[in-house]
């Protein structure tokens, strides 16, 4: 059993674990192959389902980060 403490606004422990995992993945050399696999999935038979899921997620979002929008 784990004991969780209230860390106030947000969960710093979970955020640190997430950030550490993302950094480890980025430094692993697996990003390029994963991106190629994702591109193949979008262009393949499951592409339609992936685009529908993305559209659904966007409807739930409060707005896209302006820095992510294509010029």
Summarize the structure in words:
The model has no long low-confidence stretch (mean pLDDT 87). The protein is built from three helices and no strands. 61% of the residues lie in helices and 0% in strands. The chain is extended. The protein has helices at residues 12-27, 31-43, 47-60. The chain has 71 residues and is mostly helical.
Low-confidence stretches: none
Q: Find the count of extended strands (DSSP E, 2+ residues).
A: 0
Note the overall shape: extended
| Mean model confidence by pLDDT | 87
Order of helices and strands: HHH
Characterize the biggest β-sheet: none
- Computed Rg: 17 Å
State the end-to-end distance: 49 Å
Tell me the fraction of residues in β-strands, as a range: under 5%
What structural class results from the helix and strand content?
A: mainly alpha
The helix count comes to 3
Task: Supply the key terms.
71 residues, mainly alpha
In short:
The chain has 71 residues and is mainly alpha-helical. The chain has helices at 12-27, 31-43, 47-60. The chain contains three helices and no strands.
Topology:
Layout (H helix, E strand, L loop, with lengths): L11 H16 L3 H13 L3 H14 L11
């Amino acid at each position: 059993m784990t004991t969780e403490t209230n860390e106030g606004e947000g969960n710093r422990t979970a955020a640190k674990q997430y950030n550490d995992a993302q950094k480890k993945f980025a430094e692993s050399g697996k990003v390029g192959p994963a991106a190629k696999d994702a591109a193949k999935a979008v262009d393949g038979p499951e592409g339609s389902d992936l685009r529908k899921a993305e559209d659904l997620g966007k409807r739930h979002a409060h707005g896209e980060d302006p820095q992510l929008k294509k010029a």
